[in-house]
Structures are given as structure tokens and as C-alpha cells.
Write a structure and sequence with these properties.
The complex is a heterodimer of chains A (118) and B (119). Chain A has 118 residues and is mostly beta strands. In chain A, the strands form three sheets. In chain A, strands 2, 5, 6, 10, 11 and 12 form a six-stranded mixed β-sheet that branches. In chain A, a hairpin with a 6-residue loop joins strand 5 and strand 6. Chain B has 119 residues and is mostly beta strands. Classes of the chains: A mainly beta (118), B mainly beta (119). The interface between A and B is medium-sized, with 30 and 32 residues.
Chain lengths: 118, 119
């Protein structure tokens, strides 16, 4: 089974509108972290937002917020007030076994290509 | 700027050759991860080093190897290159010593990547 599933290969949104990018995950580990990254056409991976499995509140970072629904195993990214510069590929990723320390690998979804239109 | 430095940014080489990709992690980060991003395989974890020792292995070919040096920088060696090895190779670093599990200190910050083209 896929550990990270992003079901939207592509999304369009109008400038200044909000958009939700879907991500569901699969793990039996009680301690995990969920990440969202942005990859513009230039190729670099830009960290956007992080949600820990034990965090009580949904993470927010500026225009980015994470709609974390633990029981549903979903971690959707919400971008408010979309801008043209938000056009990029967006990846959801998970890190399991946080309590083991030392860091663990990220498992990525297949990504969602977001296009912001005027 | 993530603080993770990868060199070179671009590399073009012929089949059968060997190349070395270099990564300097963020100051103080002990873990270095290597990832490969290709069109057909997506983003895949290759290998992790933690404070100089191999910690985890992913889908890394036997022709590929890595190491982490005492100053914590890491190198990924790719040998007997094939056309299919053409990809974007990322290095990421995380985990400052003493950071608790589950905190934001477990973020992985990525370098800008090395785009390898095998011709």
C-alpha cells in the first residue's frame, strides 16, 4: 500500500482564491510527522509546513495551513489567497518513527501540480 | 536559503563514467539524506547517514555509494552510469543533537539539488 497518496495530479485555482491540496497517509506508527514541500520549475524543494502526530493544533505558516484529520489519516494543505508565484509542484511527505531519534527518511507522494491563473 | 549546500548544480557525463556529488548539511545537523527524483520513479530515498554512520538504506543501487565525513559533509558516488541514472539528486539534512522527537526540529531541509544528465 502507498504510504502517501496525493490523488490530484493537477489543480487550477484563480488568483486570490483559496485551494486545498489533498494528502492521505498510511502508518501504524504512533509518532510521525507530515510535511509539505513546494517544488517550482527551477527544481529546488522548499519546505512549507510541518505537522507532528501529537500536535494538538493544526499547523499554520503564513498563507499555508494544514488541515490535519488524524482519524481519517489526512493532512491536506490549504493555501489561502493564491498568488501567481504559488504555481508549482507540491509534495506531501511523511516521516515515521520520530521517537527513535536520529531522524528518519521521508516518504513522498507523487505530487500535485498547481497552476494559479489570473 | 535552506542552509544545505550541494555541488555541482549541474553535471553532464557519459555512460559508464563515475561522478561524485557533494553535500554540506546545515550547521549542526547530524543527519544527511540522499534522494533521487526521476520522471518515472518520483522522489525516492536512497540512503541516510547520521553522525558519520550509515543509518538507513533505501532504493540505492549497488553502483551507488555514499559516505559522511567527520566534518559531517557527505558525498554520493555514482559509478558505471547509465542513461536511466539521469535525475535530480537531492541532499537533505535534519536533526540537531538533543532535539526531541516530534518537534519541528525534525524538519528536513533540502539542498538545491544536482541535476545529473547521462548521455
Amino acid at each position: 500500500a502507498q504510504k502517501i497518496t496525493q490523488t490530484q495530479p493537477g489543480m487550477f485555482v484563480q488568483e486570490k482564491e483559496a485551494v486545498t491540496l489533498d494528502c492521505t497517509y498510511d502508518t501504524s506508527d504512533p509518532s510521525y510527522g507530515l510535511f509539505w514541500y513546494k517544488q517550482p520549475s527551477s527544481g529546488e524543494m522548499i519546505f512549507l509546513i510541518y505537522q507532528g502526530s501529537y500536535d494538538q493544533q493544526n499547523a499554520t505558516e503564513g498563507r499555508y495551513s494544514l488541515n490535519f484529520q488524524k482519524a481519517r489519516k489526512s493532512a491536506n494543505l490549504v493555501i489561502s489567497a493564491s498568488q501567481l508565484g504559488d504555481s508549482a509542484m507540491y509534495f506531501c511527505a511523511m516521516r515515521e518513527g520520530l521517537l527513535t531519534g536520529g531522524g528518519n527518511k521521508l516518504t513522498f507522494g507523487t505530487g500535485t501540480q498547481l497552476k494559479v491563473e489570473l | 536559503d535552506s542552509g544545505v549546500t550541494q555541488t555541482p548544480k549541474h553535471l553532464i557525463t557519459a555512460t559508464g563514467q563515475r561522478v561524485t556529488l557533494r553535500c554540506s548539511p546545515r550547521s549542526g545537523d547530524l543527519s544527511v539524506y540522499w534522494y533521487q527524483q526521476s520522471l518515472d520513479q518520483g522522489l525516492q530515498f536512497l540512503i541516510q547517514y547520521y553522525n558519520g554512520e550509515e543509518r538507513a538504506k533505501g532504493n540505492i543501487l549497488e553502483r551507488f555509494s555514499a559516505q559522511q565525513f567527520p566534518d559531517l559533509h557527505s558525498e554520493l558516488n555514482l559509478s558505471s552510469l547509465e542513461l536511466g541514472d539521469s535525475a535530480l539528486y537531492f541532499c537533505a539534512s535534519s536533526v540537531k543533537p538533543g532535539s526531541p522527537g516530534g518537534s519541528s526540529n525534525t524538519e528536513a531541509f533540502f539542498g538545491q539539488g544536482t541535476r545529473l544528465t547521462v548521455v
